[in-house]
Amino acid sequence: MVKTGSGDAVIIPPPTPWRRADALTELTRGCFDLLIIGAGIIGSRIALEASAAGLRVALLDARDLGGATSAASSKLVHGGLRYLATGDIRRVREAHHERRVLVHRVAPHLVRPLPFLLPAYRGGPHRAPTLAAGLLLYASLSAFRDAHARLLTPARACRLVPALRTDDCIGAGLFMDATTHDHRLCLATARGAALAGAVVLNYARVVELDRVPGDRHAATVVAAGSPDPIRVAARTVINAAGPWVDAVRRLEDPAAPPLAQLSKGVHVVLPLDEPWRAAVVAPVDRYRVTFAIPWEGMLLLGTTDTAYEGDPDAVAVTDADVAAVLDEARSALTMPTLAPGAIRATFAGLRVLPRLPGGPARAPRERLLVRGPTGMVSVAGGKLTTHRRIAHETLAMLRADLGVRHLTLSDAPLPGGTLATPEALRIAAARLERRYPALDPSVCRHLVHLYGSDANRLVARGAAQPGGLERIDPRGPDIWAQVHRAVDEEWALTPDDVLRRRTTVGLRGLAEAPVIARVAALLRTAGGPAPL
After folding, report:
1. How many CB atoms sit inside 10 A of residue 420's CB?
2. 57-60 and 199-201 as β-strands: parallel, antiparallel, unpaired?
3. Own/partner pairs for 516-523, CB < 8 Å, 24+ apart?
């Protein structure tokens, strides 16, 4: 509130959290408590926790929010059954806890329980008694909550997964884990940070990082929408740049030795002609497994685990990658659609692993957490499942610098996450069906899954827009109201931001030229800048 010359009070509204012009202006005002470089799932969670603690936070990403590893995972929130083989009980117990919190508290609309089958074959690495013992231990580490486990006959396993290969199968272990839409989870986390007061901006690249008088950091940022570089001042800096973690470390110290090795993980998306009631996890060798997951009405296969030494911006899927994923899937599946011609989409992501001898497949999935010579904390790696814990550990390293006496890990729901039970989600979808009969029930369920309690506002806004409730493509459940929201409230600047990450259009293989052109036209109409 300010006073005018006449003495009248005028209320100045706060900046809109997702308006780019507001964010660019806010970045130049004063000194932030914390600058976070990298808005993947870990950086976004750090921003949310720090903002909730009352700190002034800037969250920047050189590319799209969560547009790299955090949008290219296996879409799993899981306890890590295979870690039992290495005796890593602590990690399995921690992952069980985090999965339970995400499913029941933080993002129940986005993180959904799903049964998994682990088939055992004659001559394979698992014998029935060993498999039964491992499943019992796995369930016990969750105190038998949300992780029921038992052995099934091949015939009973096929009722859950009709395409399961049963020749030489001696049985299958059944256990519970969960799946998610990884980018929507990251985006909801960044959105929560923005609503808590953080300045969130994508396509904003930090090109210089200096220590300035007053024991502060100053970052030079080149951002889409700003004609000139911006100087951002901050008391502390966190480098959460994922595959670019070492590149950002060299902004602080050009001589910094590399800490990370990168591993390429490739996934293939195929149609699913009949419903599956479970996913399949099959051993590839002593260190690796491959997944076949019913996801968003499709089949997601993967992943590979190969060393990657190139430019992270250049990571791509090759024909050899696709052949490897399909060959590994055939070890447990008999589907005729396991052929290159049936593929809807492919994607590749880069895991960040500790640089140790033995290659990426043998490297532990531990997070990297180091402090540089000027005080910047770099964090990378770990698992999607435990991203909240990693964020909390990272902030704890800076507690004294930030002047935070007590730092607790929040389990408050993310935006849209207040529908805390499957029944509440079903009721919300049914209400949408009754209120908007033009929407197919499958569309209503899809929207409630992606947006939770925000779905009603999204649909109401879409109903007020010409064509807002029409499907983007009649073969998929996404509607044009989602595009408008992505442009207006979710920082989207490119058609790929909208179609590949904020909706499921791209991964369904439906991002065809007319759709891309229409989305590009909406982006131009909105007046957003071209990305860097």
Report:
1. 17
2. parallel
3. 519/483, 519/495, 520/495, 522/483, 522/484, 522/487, 523/487, 523/492, 523/493, 523/494, 523/495, 523/498
Average pLDDT over residues 417-434: 95
Contact 476, 271 (CB under 8 A): no
Residues 6+ apart with CB under 8 A from 402: 33, 34, 50, 55, 235, 236, 395
SS3 category, 519: helix
Pairing label, strands 111-121, 76-77: unpaired
Could you give all domains of the chain from N- to C-terminal order, each with its CATH number? 25-40+48-69+185-259+365-385+397-402 (3.50.50.60), 70-183+262-349 (3.30.9.10), 422-526 (no CATH)
Burial (0-12, 13-18, 19+ Cβ within 10 Å), 363: buried
Handedness of CA 254, 255, 259, 264 (dihedral sign): positive
Residues ≥6 apart with Cβ < 8 Å to 163: 276, 333, 334, 335
Total number of residues shown for the chain: 532
Report the candidate in 69, 45, 70, 60 with the shortest Cα–Cα distance to residue 225: 60
> Model confidence over 39-65: pLDDT tens digits?
999 999 999 999 999 999 999 999 999
Q: Which residues pair with 219 in a beta bridge?
A: 209, 232
Q: 170-215 pLDDT, tens per residue? A: 989 899 999 999 999 999 999 999 999 999 999 999 999 998 887 7
Q: What are phi and psi of 265, to 5 degrees?
A: -115, 125
b/e sequence 344-362, b meaning 16+ C-beta within 10 Å: bbbbbbbbbbbeeeeebbe
Per-residue pLDDT at 15: 63
Classify residue 403 as left (phi > 0), alpha (psi -120 to 50) or beta: left
Q: Which two tokens stand for residue 206?
A: 């930090």
Instruction: Kindly report the three-state secondary structure assignment for every residue of 217-236.
Output: EEEEEEECCCCCCEEEEEEE
Query: What confidence score (pLDDT) does residue 142 get?
Result: 65
Asked whether the beta carbons of 121 and 427 are under 8 A apart, the reply is no
Average pLDDT over residues 273-302: 90
Two structure tokens written together for 168:
């030489």
Which residue blocks in 218-297 are alpha helix, DSSP H?
245-252
Q: Is the pLDDT score of 133 beyond 80? A: no
Task: Give 21's contacts (C-beta < 8 A, 6+ positions apart).
Answer: 225
CA 241 centroid distance within chain: 14
Region 501-513: mean pLDDT is 97
Q: Cα(341)–Cα(327) distance, rounded to whole angstroms?
A: 14
Residues 35 and 236: beta-carbon distance below 8 Å = yes
Q: Output the DSSP codes for 31-84.
A: EEEEEEE--SHHHHHHHHHHHHTT--EEEE-SSSTT-SGGGSS--EE---GGGG
Residue 270 structure tokens: 């195929």
